[in-house]
Amino acid sequence: MKDTAKKGNGEKRTMDVSCSANGKETSGSKKDDDGSFPVKIQGAGVEPFELLVHGFWLVQDAIMTVLGREEVAPRTSIALALSGVTLDPMMELQDIKGFKAGVTLRLVEEPYSPRLAQAHLARVQEMLKAVGPQDALLEGRSPAVLNTLTQTSAPPILQTSKNKRANSKTEQSGEAPPPPAYILPGASELPPLTTLLPTITHSEAPSYLLDLSLSCWNPPPGFRKLQGDFMYISLHTLEGKHYDITSCPRGFYLNRSTLEMFDPRPAQSTPVCHCLTDLLSHISPQFKHNLSTLRHRPSLPAEETLSTPYRTVSWLGISSLHSHKPSFSSRLGLDQDLNVQAPDWNKELQTARDLPQRSLEERLQRDRALLQVNSAFVWAAAQAAEKVMDGFVDSISGSNGDPVFLCGGVFMSKAAHGDQLLGGERSYRAAQRLELQCVQVYSDLDGDLQNLHTIPTALADYRGVRLSAQGLAPGIQGSEQAEVPSGLLYGYSAGPSENPSRRKLLQLLALSAKALSLQRHAVVGPTGHQLPLFTSIDAQGILGADGRYYLLDVYRTMPADTNFLVEDGEEGAETEGSFPRRYPHALCRLRPELVKAFIQHKHAEFSQRVKAHMEENGGLEECMNSADSRNIDAVRKACKDVGSLSDIIFEMRFNPNVFSPGVEFPSSESDAVELQKKLLKEAASFIINDRMPEFMNDCIHGADIPMDCASLRQALHQKGINLRYLGHLISSINQSDRKHQLRHITRLAFAEIVVRCAQRFFSGYIQGVETSNLSAAASHFLCCLLVPNFSSASNGEESKKRSRRRGRGGGGAPDSTAWTALSGNELWSLICQDAEETYRLKEGLGSNVDHLVEQYGLQKISLLREMCLKTGIQLRLREYILDNRSKAAINPDDVLNILPIIKHISMTTSDATRMFSAAQNSLQKGLLEQAYEQLKEAAYIFGRVCDDLHPEACRCLSLLARVAYVQGHPAEARSVQLRVVIISERVLGFDHPNTIQQYVLLAVYLLAGGETALAQRCLYRAKVLLLTVHGADHPYTAVIDASLGLVLQGEQSLQYLQSALKLNSSFRGDSDLTTALMHHLLAQRLCVAGDFRGGMNHEKEAHSIFQSKYGEDHPQTKCSSDFLRNITQQAVRVERSIRQGGTELCEALPEGLVPSQDTTLEQLALLNGILKTSYSTRMMEFKEKLKERKAAEEAEKAKLGNSESTSQVTEEDTDTNAESQSLKTNACEKSDHSNMNGQIESHLHNGNCATKNESEEEEQPPNSTNGVSTESQSKSSNVLMSVNEAESESAVVNGKECVVKDESEKQVETE
């Protein structure tokens, strides 16, 4: 196998998925260039069909693909045969003799085993169960809602330039309703929670059987087992008849048994069917009819039917749907695990890690195996956490020590009490979290460092208890083998012994320390000898019984954060708002992102110091060219200045044991330790002085737009800022002169602090509640948090009565209802106390939650959502009135479940991530075609590894849709974006901020295809989600409102655009370029409405911003001036017509003032960041082509002496671009708009320009799709250039420089 044979399949897979609406693969008549083959499949009673396979596939891969086809389901236990020879499942198709394009493969029915027969029953049961969003809700998972949204509209039709006009007529029949009142700007009421999730129950799904269960005669007696009977199945058909079915190696057949008599002999004239549904169709005509209906139902996308690797918790759910879809799994015994022996998760993981990686195909198989093992381990950890806390598992540690459990091969441990020296229970929780974080760091190491292993690790927060889930480490739990030395080889207690295994381990640790920027150092061992270390003092290295090297207890791998470390003698240094300050636990460590950023910062400082020292020694050029030691001396001085470990090269490493209590360093390490203390204090100051202001600046300029607490945490972590800095973040914002522009960040920071403090109290609160009162206690806690002055007395005795009814006969303790004593005032007091101790918030929280609502605009429903997601509480989908103090807002029956929250490591897909990063770099360089191919390749690799159900795959596909749209392929962008929305809903959450953004992007692509009604529904849903998650006072609300203003018409359009302008001015500033765009959009819509005076006022504001940003002679300012002049002229004409008696009022507006559909799409793309990157290389190439074309046109015009050529030259002088002449003929024909649109679309599809943005900036006529006057062209370019420059300035430095250069050159061209 060659890598190139696999890499070429990225494009094919993307096009197959995106262009086949029914999920059926297209096939050709010959082998494709990417190694794919069209083959014919027949046999086993299946209608023949064609299948597209890849040459590098194993036969087993082809079999799995065949089993997933609708024509084959629910058949299992089949093989493929070629020319009568059954193929080896582990062979590659391209290695099979005689395998070629168009070959016919036959399905061969394989004999069943008892396990395979049970798997077949599970497949039948799965097929008969109609899949819907409610299934995910019942299991506590986030559902996919997009399909239920699109079911209310007509089936979408992909648009082309030829049928756009026809489809626009059919679209009118499926027009979206006007926006609901609760999403209008300034609405006082929040959207109902019932609008967040689908309430449509699929009751129309037909029933197939009345009952399908194990027979009362099961299991077969011994003499029947000897004759091949596996099990007996009882069947009750819709016709009311009872049958008994035997499962055997050949399949299934009817026997003669009844409820009263056992007779296993086959019934007369009954066939033996390999597939159970064939036998059921032979028995029951009604089943056969309903099964045919099931097979012809519309198929769901693969992204919606495949199971996600990890469960995404949904905080809302639906309670009673069990009677609606009968499941036969429990009655068939399918819920019983046939694996009596629990899996060895560590062995499974390490076996997957040891798979070969020589070729791309081998790496993909390894990555997929790692993901599957880690996913299965996380699911097992979740199940083990529930069983442990539910009391189904006994502790294996006895009465002494912390309780530990072993369930399903997962080693679960929880701390009864933490180390008081480090901070008690909070320190133990922090150690568990840091252990998981550092296991992720070591797992990400590649190359030879993959020989340094870590055991599977996850954390489960369930019912207030944090359980650490790990696989069993060999060498500790396993028996020692004489031929393989096992035991402790590295660590503080390892001793000074030397052997080859220890030397090998030390070599691996040295390499890992270099990769993680850790310093090799020595400490004084327990016996007084010097002990060399490459890690923290707690880490232990062992050689397991399996011969692998393992590293354990790595929770202190990262260096200490000195901002929260008060040394002896520094007590007086701790003042209000200053650092260092005390923290509730002593395990405050720097994040890996911060260490990396700090090293980059020090390297930049090192480069500056080197240049400065060279300048002092005679100049930079002289030092570089001279052969003396001045340049070396400059490097040495710079290394000393920045604290480099080496004095000849820049080398920055950290000692993780500095500032660790109980660690003694030898005297020879004193200088190095002092240097490390200085570096760590600089790193801590780097957070305060650099990273925090950088984060605030990104939030102001729109680079980071957190919408909820999860996105705020992610944005802070990407900057290397720990959440213990939330209090400092709030104080920094309050002291900033841009406090008002960062009010949404302040709001989220307060919400995160309240939720984290409340969760800490909830953990101890819920542990003391017996199982029968859990739902009542959880609802009581939420009411105390969200309803001011709430108490059990204010709610009457209803909650106590319900808890007593639940606990009756349960033998509970007398104080089983002590949780009812908690009141809202007491809980808020505890939260304020914890916030002051942890985040130094002495003021700001007020006396209750209403203070945050009134002072900072925090929504109670948003706080409820955050609390549920944090604790795993799932609530019933209904409306909650959280301001009613006389009645409990949340009842015990509203708490549907408490789910375990699992934190786990993520398995990286190195090849896909590398290709995705390369595509992003290509975009920054302007290589659009190359980026497009790289994105398709990355999407293909993600699909091979994780079936696209991964956050990184979602990002990759979203960027692929953007690039496809920019290239002029809206149909492909729409198809890919539909998948992106479903993936985001299922993997991140139905109301995750990324899902909101993806809905808005989908609306743009849908509108480009003429699906206006569906685009409006997507924007409605995005607005509903944002209002629920955060509220209307958010920067992204301006984007959604502006998009709605462009899509809607009339008064509602003006209403949304005015709201967007107000919000954008508030968050981005009155002089921001995006604000100028908002003014221009509103000026356009006001002109359409006939308010020319208002349009002039807004265009004047836009012109003022452009003039202040660029100057009077800049093309941007000139374009705004031209559009302003057009408005003024039209206003004068209207005024004159009024004075003359209104004789001309009925005339249509000049088309230069009416935005076309394509102009609207371009403006939408700019608003949503689709057109935001300056593709410099392609732009320069395109300019050269334009210059050559312009020179050729001028030479041709010089030869023409007629009047027509003269008029064309005159018109050309008024244009701002050279290509306007080629479009002027169509532009003058007002009736031929479709021809004009077709020319523009064909121009984009032919790839003559890198992006739409390039064509709009370089060629003004294509920008004006109306094609009537140069004034309309200048109007459109006004919008495009302004926001493109604004976005590129906030994106990359190189892009900013290219934009400035391009604009100056453009000005020369226009002149």
How are the SSEs placed, and which strands pair?
Blueprint: H1 3-7, H2 9-19, E1 36-43, E2 46-54, H3 59-67, E3 78-82, E4 85-86, E5 104-109, H4 114-128, H5 133-138, H6 146-150, H7 164-171, E6 211-214, H8 222-225, E7 231-236, E8 242-248, E9 251-254, H9 276-283, H10 285-295, H11 302-305, E10 316-317, H12 345-353, H13 360-390, E11 404-407, E12 410-413, H14 425-443, E13 452-453, E14 457-462, E15 465-470, E16 487-490, H15 500-515, E17 521-524, E18 530-533, E19 540-543, E20 549-552, H16 592-616, H17 620-625, H18 630-642, H19 670-700, H20 709-718, H21 726-735, H22 743-767, H23 774-786, H24 798-807, H25 824-839, H26 849-856, H27 860-871, E21 873-876, E22 895-898, E23 901-904, H28 910-925, H29 928-946, H30 951-966, H31 970-987, H32 993-1008, H33 1012-1029, H34 1035-1047, H35 1050-1068, H36 1073-1089, H37 1092-1110, H38 1115-1139, H39 1157-1167, H40 1176-1199, H41 1203-1214, H42 1220-1228, H43 1233-1245, H44 1252-1258, H45 1260-1263, H46 1270-1291, H47 1293-1310
Parallel strand pairs: 1-5, 10-21, 13-20
Antiparallel strand pairs: 1-2, 3-4, 3-5, 6-7, 7-8, 8-9, 11-12, 12-15, 14-15, 14-23, 16-19, 17-18, 19-20, 21-22
Keywords: Cytoplasm
GO molecular function, one term: mRNA binding
Domain Clu: 322-565
